[in-house]
Design goal:
Layout (H helix, E strand, L loop, with lengths): L35 E7 L4 H4 L6 H8 L4 E3 L2 E2 L5 H10 L5 E2 L14 H4 L3 E2 L21 E2 L7 E2 L12 E2 L13 E2 L3 H7 L4 E5 L12 E2 L32 E2 L9 H4 L11 E2 L7 H7 L5 E5 L38 H19 L2 H4 L3 E7 L27 E5 L9 E2 L3 E2 H12 L16 H4 L1
Parallel strand pairs: 1-14, 1-15, 2-17, 3-18, 4-5, 10-13, 10-14
Antiparallel strand pairs: 2-16, 6-9, 7-8, 11-12, 15-16
Length: 452
C-alpha cells in the first residue's frame, strides 16, 4: 500500500461534471416501486478502507457472498459530513459547506440560499470568496446553493500534509444552481401521502429540538454549575469534558429545515426524529413492523466509524500515520481496528433487525448501506488541471443495496458512475417522487442495476 503523498505541481482541476437544473423535475424511472427503504449512514472512510477490511467481516461477507449489490464507482460529492447528508436527502448543499449547528427557530435570519454566501469552515484560511461561519439559518425558500469545486484547497483541507482534497474525483465539479428549492425528500414524501422517520442513535428521549450533541443523557443544554442546585439539567460535580458527543446534529440533516423545525405539518416535524431505543425507536418499530416509507438510520459517532477523541478504545479516532500528523492516507494503514469492528457489529445488528421485521416480509423493500465521505486524505501539492486524484484519495465510498425481492447469490458489482445525487434520484424513483435539485442534473444516473 502506498504510504506517500503524491506531490505534483500544477493548476487545480476545475472541469465541470454536471449541468444544473435544480428545483424539482420529472419522476425518475428505472427502479421498481418500493414500499420501504432503509438507509444506514456510516462515516468518514473510503472505499479502500472498508472493502476487505479484516475487522469488518459482516459487511465484507455480504459483498463476498453476493448478498448485496455493490457500487464500485460511487462518489461522495464533497466535504464535510453535513454537506453530504444534505445532498443525499435534498440533492443540494443548500449553501452549506460546514458542520455548523442549526440556528434553531430563527425566523429573521437570511438563508444561505437567499444570500448566495456559502456557510463554510475555511480551514486553510484562504477562502476565495465571502463566507458565512455562523450557525445555519433554517433552510427554506429558493435561491442559489454553493459551488462544489473539483479540488478543495481552502475549506476542509488539513495543512500542511493535505493541502488539496478531491471533491468527487478531483476533476468533476458541481456549479452553483440558482433555482435550488429548500426542501428534502421528507417534504416530498408527506406531500405524496407517504411517511418518513430518521432514527438517530443516542438522541435523548426528550427529542431533537435544540439538541446539537448528546450522549443519550446529557446534551449541549446540560450545565455543570456547582453554584446551582443539582438537577436533571445541571449535573455537578460532573464536568462537561466527560461527555462523549455520540449523537451529532450534523448527522441529522432534516433538523436543518424550517418546515421540520417549525412542524408546519404534524407528519413532517421534529417528532419524526427518534432514537434507536424507546417505544417509538428503531428497534421497537422494526419489531412491530410499523416502519415508515423511508427509514433514515444513523448510528452514533462511536458506532458509525466516525470516532470520538474521548471515547473508549472502540470509539477512539483512527490513530493515523505519524508522517501525516496522525491522519490516514486513504488506505487501511493507521485505522483503529476497534472502531472498524464496532461499526461492523452495529451494521450487523441493524440489518439483522430489519430482516427479522414483519416489514421485510411484506411488499418491496431495500436496504442501503452507505458511507458519507472519505477520510479527508489528499495531496500536499496540486496536480495539473483535469487530473484525476490517486485512487486512494478519491472521494469514493462503499454503497451497497439489498432488496427483499432479489434472488440469493445474484449480487452484482456495478462500475457505473454514481454520486450522492444518484442515491436520492433512485429512492425518488422507487417512491414515484419528482427528482429534486441536483438529482435532476444531466449525468446523474438512476441506480437501476443496484435496485433491480
Amino acid at each position: 500500500m502506498n504510504r506517500t503523498i503524491s506531490v505534483v505541481a500544477g493548476a487545480l482541476a476545475t472541469a465541470l461534471g454536471f449541468s444544473t437544473l435544480a428545483a424539482e423535475g420529472p419522476v425518475p424511472r428505472g427502479v421498481p416501486q418500493l414500499d420501504h427503504v432503509f438507509v444506514i449512514m456510516m462515516e468518514n472512510h473510503s472505499f479502500q478502507q472498508v472493502l476487505n477490511n479484516p475487522n469488518m467481516p459482516f459487511i465484507n461477507g455480504l459483498i463476498a457472498e453476493k448478498k448485496v449489490n455493490l457500487a464500485t464507482n460511487y462518489f461522495a460529492v464533497g466535504h464535510p459530513s453535513l454537506t453530504n447528508y444534505l445532498e443525499i436527502v435534498g440533492g443540494s448543499n443548500f449553501g452549506v459547506r460546514s458542520d455548523n449547528s442549526p440556528d434553531w427557530h430563527n425566523t429573521s435570519c437570511q438563508t444561505n440560499l437567499e444570500t448566495g454566501i456559502p456557510n463554510a469552515d475555511n480551514a486553510g484560511g484562504n477562502n476565495p470568496y465571502p463566507i458565512d461561519t455562523n450557525n445555519v439559518c433554517p433552510i427554506a425558500g429558493e435561491g442559489t446553493d454553493a459551488l462544489t469545486e473539483a479540488v478543495d484547497n481552502w475549506n476542509e483541507v488539513n495543512p500542511p500534509v493535505f493541502n488539496f482534497l478531491a471533491n468527487l474525483d478531483g476533476v468533476k465539479s458541481v456549479p452553483a444552481a440558482p433555482n435550488t428549492v429548500g426542501k428534502t425528500i421528507a417534504d416530498q414524501l408527506v406531500e405524496a401521502g407517504l411517511s418518513w422517520k430518521t432514527y438517530q442513535e443516542n438522541l435523548p428521549l426528550s427529542g431533537a429540538d435544540l439538541i446539537n450533541t448528546s450522549n443519550g443523557t446529557a446534551t449541549n443544554l446540560t450545565t455543570f454549575d456547582p453554584s446551582q442546585p443539582l438537577s436533571a439539567t445541571n449535573l455537578p460535580p460532573l464536568t462537561s469534558n466527560s461527555i462523549v458527543a455520540a449523537y451529532a446534529v450534523k448527522h441529522n440533516p432534516f433538523a436543518y429545515f424550517k418546515s421540520v423545525q417549525e412542524g408546519l405539518r404534524p407528519d413532517n416535524s421534529l417528532r419524526n426524529m427518534v432514537g434507536f431505543e424507546g417505544p417509538r425507536g428503531l428497534y421497537a418499530d422494526l419489531a412491530t413492523g410499523r416502519v415508515p416509507s423511508l427509514a433514515y438510520i444513523v448510528p452514533d459517532q462511536c458506532d458509525d466509524q466516525h470516532g470520538r477523541g474521548n471515547g473508549d478504545a472502540f470509539c477512539e479516532y483512527d490513530q493515523g500515520i505519524a508522517a501525516y500528523n496522525g491522519n490516514t492516507d486513504g488506505t487501511q494503514v493507521g485505522l483503529n481496528p476497534g472502531l472498524s469492528e464496532q461499526a461492523d457489529v452495529t451494521v450487523h445488528k441493524i440489518v439483522s433487525s430489519i430482516k427479522n421485521s414483519p416489514a421485510w416480509q411484506q411488499g418491496r423493500s431495500a436496504i442501503v448501506i452507505v458511507w458519507d465521505e472519505n477520510d479527508y486524505s489528499g495531496l500536499a501539492l496540486s496536480l495539473p488541471a483535469n487530473t484525476v486524484f490517486p485512487t486512494q484519495n478519491l472521494n469514493t465510498v462503499v454503497l451497497t443495496v439489498e432488496t427483499n425481492h432479489t434472488s440469493p447469490g445474484a449480487g452484482i458489482q456495478s462500475g457505473t458512475f454514481y454520486t450522492s445525487y444518484s442515491l436520492l434520484r433512485s429512492i425518488e424513483a422507487g417512491f414515484g417522487l419528482p427528482c429534486l435539485n441536483h438529482a435532476c442534473d444531466k449525468g446523474v444516473n438512476v441506480m437501476a442495476d443496484l435496485f433491480r
